[in-house]
Design brief:
There is one protein chain. The chain has 214 residues and is α+β, with helices and mostly antiparallel strands. It has 5 helices and 9 strands, in the order ββαββαββββαβαα. The chain has a 7-stranded antiparallel sheet. Strand 1 and strand 2 form a beta hairpin. It is elongated, with a radius of gyration of 34 Å. 19% of the residues are buried.
Amino acid sequence: MVFYFKTVVNGREYMIYMGRDKMENEDLLRWGFPEDVWFHVDKLSSAHVYLRLNKGEGVADIPKELVDQCCQLVKANSIQGCKLANVDIVYTPYPNLKKTGDMVAGQVGFHKNKKVVKVNIEKNNEIWKKLEKTREEREVDLQEERNRRDREEQEELKKQKKLQREMEKLQIEKEKKEREMKSYKLLDTDPDNCTSNQFENESDAERELVDDFM
């Protein structure tokens, strides 16, 4: 079972989720989305809380209000942390999580420590209780959800590449037409490209001038 929470910040809806126990945390670690952000109480046991960002957002874009909500939720779901007045919370993009074979269930490390953000928060029951009212427990196939997400991303990439090729083709055709038009204009202004009728007209005019002087 996975617990899901909903929140709206600055007019945008976000989903927050966490596992029931350490074994379920292993599945979350394995099948998270690249756009997820992972939260945990620093140096204490706690739930693994994930925030799913909207398309195009990064860690730096997370509103402070949303960070506070995730932090209060993870603190409230820490056996030791929930009893403390304040705790340190760490959060990082999901792709920065590192899991090695020698780690126990629920344990995780980081690929790059510089991508880990640490904040200190004070207990605020009002925030997490508000989130609790939105909690929904679901039985989900995390692997299938991740696979479906990846398929949709690949389809979107294919569409973008197809559109790019079509735009490049149109640009090539446009440049070709512009070159052709330029060539036609040069031909129209080339004195060596005069027609025989033009020469005949000019000769007639010259004869008329000569006749006028005779």
